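Let's practice the habit of predicting before peeking. Look at the sequence and jot down your guess about where helices and strands might fall. Then scroll down.
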Amino acid sequence: MAKNNTGADDRERSAAIDRALADVSGLFRGRAKSALEGDLTPSNSIKLSLENGALLLTGKKALKLPLDGTPVRIDGERGPSTVTVSQRSDTLVVQGKSSKGDRTQTFRVVDNVLVVHTKLSPKKLSTSVEFSTRYKRR
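Done guessing? Here is the structure:
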């Protein structure tokens, strides 16, 4: 699926980052914004499939995550995290926890569009960053 490039999703993500950084001093805000933008820039394309009780997720990385909620350790650029997947009716929920904070992404199809809702809760910020990204079939 290809990212919807209307610009609305990018504006929503940028506004969410700005809200989360509103209480951060100006001295650190620019650096924090750059770090968050880098961490939260969605992949231009995404592929999801279910195979043998696991979610295969390909975007910036290729991940194979068991659907039974078994935690999987993933070593990322900013350190290790533990990721789990669950399914709630028509929604897949991917949750990641690390020493730097938590991230939850939900994947749901609405009107033939994949909507990925992201909530990032960094431990160093008092406010979470929440936004959605839409993908269309190619």
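How did you do? The mean pLDDT is 91.
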